[in-house]
Design brief:
about 200 residues, alpha/beta, Rossmann fold, five-stranded mixed β-sheet, two-stranded antiparallel ribbon, 3 helices, 7 strands, about 20% helix, about 20% strand, globular, disordered C terminus, Caspase-like_dom_sf, Caspase family p10 domain-containing protein, Pept_C14_p10
Length: about 200
């Protein structure tokens, strides 16, 4: 997982401590060259933070429910996952009163609840669906005291590196229903049904 950024960074970029962009291929070559990872799938998540008041939304003709592919397929099971903004407002990165970005929140929610039963690509589709139906707080004009909730597509998952046709499972052969507790403030799953876990009344 790479978390980096600067005031005017572009989505999917990786920056060093001085704000200089780091070539993604240089990092991947280190990962590919590590003998501990030989013959194993390699998954890298990239979250780039942009601290501008407004960010340029990603102009895509693809459906907001699609996972974008920006690069060529590889043969060594390397996946680099990031996200592109679909709205101009800053909340595509960090929402108000949120711990982490919408992208990270969606990944945590989906992996926590479905990692035992879905493939890696299915998990990404579920996370993409969460961001396609995100609940975004918006302050009203009445002294900025009241807050309304809007449902928006805040971001879209993009594969910067991927291996075509590879099906990855974190728990292959394990048939376990994931333990759920409490309620999750998330949205709809790929099936159109709520992905939140409802608490049983006592």
């Amino acid at each position: 997982m790479f978390l980096s950024g600067k005031f005017d960074s572009e989505a999917g970029e990786i920056h060093d401590c001085n704000g200089k962009a780091v070539q993604r291929n240089a990092i991947l070559e280190i990962i590919r060259g590590c003998h501990h990872f030989e013959g194993k799938p390699k998954i890298v998540f990239v979250q780039t933070y942009n601290f501008q008041e407004k960010s340029k939304g990603f102009d895509s003709s693809d459906s907001k429910y699609d996972i974008l592919k920006n690069g060529k397929s590889n043969t060594d099971d390397v996946f680099v996952v990031s996200n592109y903004p679909r709205i101009e407002q800053g909340p595509w990165i960090l929402g108000e009163n949120m711990s982490g970005s919408y992208f990270i929140q969606a990944l945590i929610h989906v992996f926590k609840n479905f990692a035992c039963e879905k493939s890696f690509m299915e998990l990404l589709k579920e996370a993409n669906m969460c961001m396609a139906h995100a609940l975004v707080p918006k302050k009203t004009t009445e002294g900025n005291k009241k807050v309304t909730i809007e449902r928006k597509t805040v971001a879209q998952i993009v594969l910067l590196e991927y291996c075509e046709g590879t099906q990855l499972y974190f728990f292959p052969g394990l048939d376990v229903t994931p333990f759920q507790k409490g309620s999750e403030n998330k949205d709809v799953s790929e099936s159109g049904k709520p992905v939140r876990a409802e608490s049983n009344p006592h």
